[in-house]
Structure formats: structure tokens, C-alpha cells
Amino acid sequence: MAVTARTFLSVLNDRQRAAASFPFDHPERTRWVYVPERRTGIPLRAMDAGQRAAAFELLGTGLSERGTGLARGIIELEGTLRELEGAAGSLLGPGRDPELYYLALFSGPGGTPHPWGWSFEGHHLSVNVTDLGPHGQIVAPLFMGANPARVPSGPREGTRLLAAEEDLAFELLHMLDLGQRARATIAAQPFGDILTRNDPVVGPMAFAGLPAAEMTVAQQRQLRRLLELYAGRMADSSASRQLRRIEQAGFGRLHFAWAGAHQPREPHYYRIHGPTVLVEYDNTQSDANHIHTVWRDLENDFGGDLLRRHYSRQSHRD
Prior knowledge:
- By secondary structure, the protein is of the alpha+beta class.
- 38% of the residues lie in helices and 21% in strands.
- Strands 1, 2, 3, 4, 5, 6, 7, 8, 9, 10, 11 and 12 form a 12-stranded mixed β-sheet that branches.
- Helix 1 (2-10) packs antiparallel against helix 3 and helix 5 (163-175) runs antiparallel to helix 7 (217-231).
């Protein structure tokens, strides 16, 4: 990843490099948003073709092939949204722009190689990567959304960028018996968005819903498929570490919670919550055609506990 980052910086001119580079302790490193607004860093709009290619190479060090494809799809979908809103006379100013996705790099203190990180962010996309050397990299928070969730018309009619995230969850819900489904359902109406919004740190949240320990083997297998789908957005090494920590903390301690309708195309929400992880999915806006999803590492968002441990060891050596 470090080599790819240096390659990206090397293809920028001095002005662009200054726009893209920040110290690791800059407050913008942990400020993340998923609405259309200006970000820290250099936007795709300011890059030529070669620079964009280098930016996406860096993105591919934090995300898997599928994750990178989803990121590209989200950017393309922003153009589709602009066309749809334009045709309907409801375009929200300049906010729908597939070139307003920003890359920012955060270098280690005093030029040290670790820790360091980067973010790639724009409407419905926030990839936050922290590299901790021997501790590996943390890819969290990781937000991906889709509006429209199902393209209603035009050349891409019927496209569902996050189809699996919706379909696998409904399959799991309908595998539950009536008692389990009642246990999993925590509210008759969803909440209008993911509950954690863009908080830098996830606050205390009580476990709710159906514990994996009370599921059948087939239901647990489906829950794993859904969890692995989200983890699989990350680079393989990061995903493997996340899934291993979930197993070590106890897969049976995961809770599957649902709110809203039990059938597609009506507002609904779900989450997977365990000691180390929180996955949230919401599809309530735009007549239930607007998905938000996020992966939160409850111990290590933006480096978290691993980062504190790193600094502690550095101080001890000093």
C-alpha cells in the first residue's frame, strides 16, 4: 500500500500534492461524511487520466476487487442520479457530480512510516484506511450507499448495485420461524437512516434482536454469508482479520436485528451487532429505493485500540 501511495503522490504536481497531503493527527482524518459536500483532499475532477488511474490503484489496496467495483459503481450511480433528477426537474444543484470524490493521505508523525492512512470519499462512499505496519491495516469505517437502489428508467434500468446486501438479508429473515422473526424485529418502523450516522466513534449500543446462538445451523450459515459479503468489500487480508476477530469474540454473540417491513420495496432496516463489529443497512428514503450501509469496527475504527497500543509501545521504547 505504501508503494502505491508514493506512486500516486509522485504523479501529482506540487499544488496537487499539497492539496492531497495532511499530517496523521489532522482532525479531518476522523471526520467522515456520506452526504454530497466538499471533502478534504484532491477530487477526481482535479486529476488527469493517469492520476485517476493511480488513485484507483491506491483504492484497490484497501478494497477487494468486488469492493473496488462497488466504489466505481457508486461513483457512476451519482451520474445516473443526476440524470434522473434532471429529467424530473428536481436536480439538487451541483451536488450530484461523479467527479467530486476526494482522496486524502495522512502521513505519520515526523516522517515515520507508521501509522499513516488515507481516505477516499464522496456522496455515498467513505473508505477510511489506517496502516499500522506490523498490525496490518484497518479499513473502517467503510460506508457504501446506492441511490437509486434500483434504477427505475434509462439505459441502466433495473440495475441494483447493492442487490446482494438486500436479498441475502431478506432470505435470512424468511428462514426464521415466527418466534425467531418476532425476536429479531426490534421496531415496526425503521429509523430513517443508519443509527450511527457519521459518528467518529460508535457510542454504546445495547444488543438487540436474535442472537446467532439461537439460530439453526442453516440460519447461522446464512448470517455468515451476509457478514462475509460486507467483509468481502475489504482487501482480503483486512477481511480475514476482521472475520477472525468476530469468531474469537464468539460468533454466537452476534445479534441480527430488523426494523420495518418484512418484504422488499417497503422501508426496512437491519443490523448485525457483535462485540467487535457493527454492520448497519437502511433502505427507507426515496420510497425505499435508497440504501445506506456501513461496517464499523467497534474497537479499531480509524485505528482505535491498535493505534493506542502502537503509540504506547513507541513511548515505551523512547
